[in-house]
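Lab notebook page, bench 4
Experiment: in silico fold of construct C2
Operator: M.H.
Input chain length: 154 residues
Purpose: comparison with the prior construct
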Amino acid sequence: MPKRNIILIVLASAFILGGQLAYGAGVLPAATGAATPGCVSPDPNISNATYCGNYEINDFVSLGIIISKWVLGVVGSLSLIMFIYGGFMFLISTGSAEKIKKATQIIIAAVIGLIIVFSSYLIIKFVLSSMGLNWEGKIEKPKQTALILTDRLI
């Protein structure tokens, strides 16, 4: 079987499985739009708006946030696994300069991956907070600060 066919099968499987997991695992947010008249969800756990597909722009922002959480979690986990793998390669190098160099490169790449994950998280949080949203994609109410005024002059 050619390499191209294997890649296509893996990508198609990932696309189908990913869609099923996303829908079943709660990745898709519930729709906040108004339900279409006459469109009723057969499942009482799914809102009529979600079943009918009446999504609003805020729902797509929530979807983007959920996807970014998943991606950052997966990439962070892969970076941790590479960290462990690099450390293991370093331990079993038995003094070979070539194996030590390879293990060091793996660990450096894992550290760079962690830096990218953390900086991506910070960028996403900054953009969301500058738009007035919290980490769930909901509008964040501004915090009220107490202003104490006195009528006495000192």
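Observations: The mean pLDDT is 76. Residues 57-137 form one domain.
Next step: discuss at group meeting.
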